[in-house]
Amino acid sequence: MKNRRITLKDLAKDLNLSASTISRALDNHPAISDATKKKVQRKAEELGFIPNSIASSFRTKKTKSIGIIVPRIDIHFHSLVISGIEDFAYKNGYNVTIFQSKDSLKREKEIAKILQNRMVDGIIICLSIETEKCDHFKKFDKLGVPMVFYDRVPTDFDANKIVINDFESAFTATEHLIKKGCKRIGHIAGSQKTDIFKARLEGFKAALQKYKLPINQDLILYTKHLGYEEGVICAKKYLEFSELPDGVFCANDYTAVSVIQIFRKHGIRIPQDVAIVGFSNYPISKIIEPNLTTINDCAFQMGESSAKLLIRHIEDKDEFINSESITLRTNLIVRESTQLSDA
């Protein structure tokens, strides 16, 4: 027996009990006496018996397993979301398997096919930056597998969603710059193929319009991935202007950090000459000097909420709602990049 897995039949033979009795005893079935349960448990531990989770899942029709598709786990936002999902899932007896699309639609479709063939009870998804149509996820509805989308969510079919109000958050960030006295405000935008970055741009514009400030299209710079290097390129473009912006709202913290570093290398004071606001509250926002004012995007809470919604749909099929949407509130964290020190 040392070189193979111990089975229920092995335990049954050793204890002179039926395999069904052994199974019930291990499952703490009320029909089995406490004495028998203890005897079976002792023998299982002695022989090193490990329950077959696959066989169990066939009996219960549940695997207690959740699939997660994220664009990139090396982005702090998604790491925090995953942490929130995993914490809630673990407390409720679920395991998680994580897949990265690497922001590739092709890879996302391949992962969806893999998950169709795997025994998962539900899926949590953040769409890749290339994804515009979500036909590859519609099959899960037909299979009866619940899905929850977070942050980047589908618009071409009804789905469970956990999001923040990107428009309102961007409005708040821009309004903060205006109230600090900024009048010539720039924006480093994300890909306009993605709804969340479209909303952030629209929120930026709406704040300018409310306070009757001009929307200078030259001061709106676009990126593909909002990476650090793209932020460097944008900062250098601003330096080419005859007149710098006096405030910049960046669609994420990486680009905001780039702007701070490049501007400071050129002797531009932050926030005295240019005030900077980011988005996401990445750890680097507290490390960069000056510390970065930013929007807290509630990433961990988004993960918890996604897992909570998904597990409720998995466990309570009678209350299954195909398109439940939850919007989390964000908040502005004011730091040195917009706040003059008292010194």
Automatic annotation (TrEMBL):
Pfam families: LacI, Peripla_BP_3. Signal peptide: none annotated. This is LacI family transcriptional regulator. CDD domains: HTH_LacI, PBP1_LacI_sugar_binding-like. InterPro entries: HTH_LacI, LacI/GalR-like_sensor, Lambda_DNA-bd_dom_sf, Peripla_BP_I. One of its GO terms (molecular function) is transcription cis-regulatory region binding. It comes from the Bacteria. Residues 6-60 form the HTH lacI-type domain. The keyword Transcription applies. It comes from Aureibaculum algae. SMART domains: HTH_LACI.
